[in-house]
Amino acid sequence: MRMLWKNIKGLVGAYDAPPPYLKGGEMRSLPVLEHAWLAIEDGVIVDFGTMDTFQGIADWSGLEVMDCEGKYALPAWCDSHTHLVFAASRSNEFLSRLEGKSYQEIAAEGGGILNSARALQAMSEADLLADARNRLQQAIRTGTGSIEIKSGYGLTAEAELKMLRVIRALKEEFTIPIKATFLACHAVPEGEWTAATWTAHIIDQALPVVANEGLADYVDAFCEKGYFGLEETQSLLDAASSHGILSKVHVNQFNVFGGVKLCVNSNAVSVDHLEELSSEDIETLKYAADSSNPTFATALPGCSYFLGMPYTPVHDLMKADVPVALATDFNPGSAPSSNMNRVVQLAILKMKMHPLEAIAAATINGAAAMECSERAGVIARGRAANVLLTRPLNGLEDLAYDFGEEPVEKVFIDGIAQ
Ligand code: NIG
Ligand code: FE
After folding, report:
1. DSSP helix/strand/coil, 25
2. How many whole angstroms from its chain centre is CA 280?
3. What integer is the mean pLDDT of 200-211?
4. Who contacts 57 (Cβ-Cβ below 8 Å, separation ≥6)?
5. What ligand 1 atom has the least distance to the C-alpha of 331?
6. What is the predicted pLDDT for the residue at 1?
7. Taking the model in full, what pTM does it have?
8. Which residues line ligand 1 (CB under 6 A)?
9. Statement: 77-368 belongs to CATH 3.30.450.40
10. Which residue, 158, 188, 199, 203, has most beta carbons within 10 Å?
11. Which segments of the chain belong to CATH 3.20.20.140?
12. Is 168 helix (H, G, I), strand (E, B) or coil?
């Protein structure tokens, strides 16, 4: 199978030698090759360039030529933070919010994550997988070409492992990069548990199994008041590290109390949410960004939008040269959408990111925030052709300007239209 895309209005994120990620101040310099062509063979990007360098077609055999006049080609979206495996919608809680309750009040009454956990514990692994498969296919159809998926709705050791096995099955079925994160410390389960006893239980009983069976690429904790504090988060990250597992952590969603520093000092790959950030947090992330081992700052604007909460101050982060990533946080409670186009649109409209910054955050930096830069996030020779093609646009700002339209016309995974 050979494909030639010609007359592409802009080939975005295409590199001869891709950098691993872009620091805050570099994100706006994401390359756009204007009036370009792209050649794909057997699902792999073999070459690209500008139309004035195009040599013409010598061999027409089995070649599909696509005229991309007016359209942009981008690396498929890299969604580095999702909770895509879950049992049921929580639209009833959404209605309660419309009727006046807050997200935190609903959680305090045993709803929220605990509600999702009750439903997930009762659901079979096969049924969970069937639903997760459909959701992943849907995400891919909107342009997602790599994804991180968390456990965290099991809240028993057994149900957490069930979730991780579902993610492992997705990894086996799909060719796109998928990363699994063990988030047993998502909420303190019902019963006699405290944050401390639950964390100790997870470290002693579940983490060794997760590590031995290679079920997770990362650990995560909801480091937040009323969930898991600094002590529990630190002990989880230390235990994970003794098993050779790094972390991606939910932190600073509602409160600032030192979680960012803890995560950075523990070499977390990313800190996610950050709707609340102190100047010390930004200094800490800036310091890490200056090293060869940054901690990515992942903003989740779909969650801010859906909960009516503050947006992550990405400009402060980018000004400090911190590499920023964008992700959906897809989950039934705080962000029920897997559509990365919505996230990019919100990043531009609500966080005032430049379109190139938003795209960089949702591609090259998203890939780096889940350590799959070698396989995703850029257009480069020898890489899988996980590429999306927009409908005709005046410019990349139309990703947000035409806010009622779907920007993506076609999505290709391994060169195959989805
Ligand atoms: O990232 N904040 C913690 N966890 C999820 C929401 C979980 C839920 O409400 O089900 C989040 O927003
Ligand atoms: Fe989340």
Report:
1. helix
2. 25
3. 98
4. 4, 63, 65
5. 10
6. 85
7. 0.98
8. 112-113, 116, 222, 250, 253, 303, 329, 331-334
9. no
10. 199
11. 77-368
12. helix
Residues 6+ apart with CB under 8 A from 365: 21, 22, 27, 78, 296, 323, 324, 325, 326, 377
Distance 330 CA to ligand 1 centre (A): 9
In tens, the pLDDT along 152-187 reads: 999 999 999 999 999 999 999 999 999 999 999 999
CATH of domain 2-75+378-417: 2.30.40.10
Ligand showing the shortest atom-to-Cα distance for residue 90: 1
Confidence of residue 55 (pLDDT cuts 50, 70, 90): confident
* Closest atom of ligand 1 relative to the 333 alpha carbon: 9
List CB-based neighbours of ion ligand 2 within 5 Å.
Answer: 329
What's the full length of the chain, in residues? 418
Bridging pattern class, strands 270-273 and 246-251:
parallel
pLDDT in tens, 272-300: 999 999 999 999 999 999 998 999 999 99
- Tell the residue nearest (CA) to atom 12 of ligand 1: 334
Instruction: Using most ligand atoms within 8 A of CB, pick from 82, 83, 274 the residue to mutate for ligand 1.
Output: 83
Residues 363-373: pLDDT tens digits? 999 999 999 99
Ligand nearest to the CA of 227: 1
Q: Which of 334, 337, 343 to mutate to test the pocket of ligand 1 (most atoms within 8 A of CB)?
A: 334
Q: Where in the chain is the domain with CATH 2.30.40.10?
A: 2-75+378-417
